[in-house]
Amino acid sequence: MMKHIRKIGATALLLVAVLSHPGITTAHGTASGEDDPCMRRVGERVVHFNAYQPQYELKHQYCTDIPQEGETFLVVDLVDPALRNEPVGMRIVRGNGNNETEGEIVADIRPSTHPDGVLRGEVRLDEGMYRVILATEKQNLMRRPQYLLRVHMTDYQQLVRTVAVPLLGVLLAAWLGYKLIRSTWLRKWWAVLRS
């Protein structure tokens, strides 16, 4: 019986540990291919987007949630070699509307070829929502890859995940502890120890 209790306790501790650190399994660095939120596929073409703010964090890269306002380096890796020979441009629009005319254009990098496979831009981003729109001269305008950026904004969905999941783990551990304390086996064991 004691072996059974140890297994339950070890499982509960493992569950609490995993639930209290969900970021370990969802970090951007482990994502690859289809699971990568920074990768966009348009037809046969593939691009990968990253944003950097070296004045705050030297090595961190962001895709959709940028934690601070300020100068931001936007980097698009043209994964598909065919894109390196086509003129590719990038437009950053403040706002999250579906129509480009609905927002203020913050930066517009005109289409040009990128033999090294990297489209770069630097822009100052204030708090708010932005769209990064990529376009080529040959590409259908309705099928352009876009990235929605949240700059210096609280992501309430992520906040709920980081608070609720560990809280559920603690509640589960408390429930298991309560069940163990109320068990007749523990009462009998305690009575034997006291006598």
Question: How would you explain this protein's 3D organization?
Answer:
- By secondary structure, the protein is an alpha+beta fold.
- The chain has 2 domains: 27-153, Macroglobulin (MG2) domain (Immunoglobulin-like, Sandwich); 155-195.
- Helices cover 31% and strands 33% of the residues.
- The protein is built from 4 helices and 10 strands; from the N terminus they run H-H-E-E-E-E-E-E-E-E-E-E-H-H.
- The protein has helices at 2-20, 23-26, 156-181, 184-194, and strands spanning 39-42, 45-52, 61-62, 65-66, 70-78, 88-94, 104-112, 118-125, 128-136, 146-151.
- Strands 1, 2, 3, 5 and 8 form a 5-stranded antiparallel beta sheet that branches. Strands 4-10-9-6-7 form a 5-stranded mixed beta sheet, with no helix packed on it.
- Strand 1 (39-42) and strand 2 form a beta hairpin.
- Helix 1 (2-20) runs antiparallel to helix 3 (156-181).
- Residues 22-30 have low confidence and may be disordered.
Shape: elongated
- Overall average pLDDT: 80
* DSSP strand tally: 10
Q: What value does the Rg take, in angstroms?
A: 25 Å
CATH superfamily of the largest domain: Macroglobulin (MG2) domain
What is the architecture of the largest domain at the second tier of CATH? Sandwich
Overall number of domains: 2
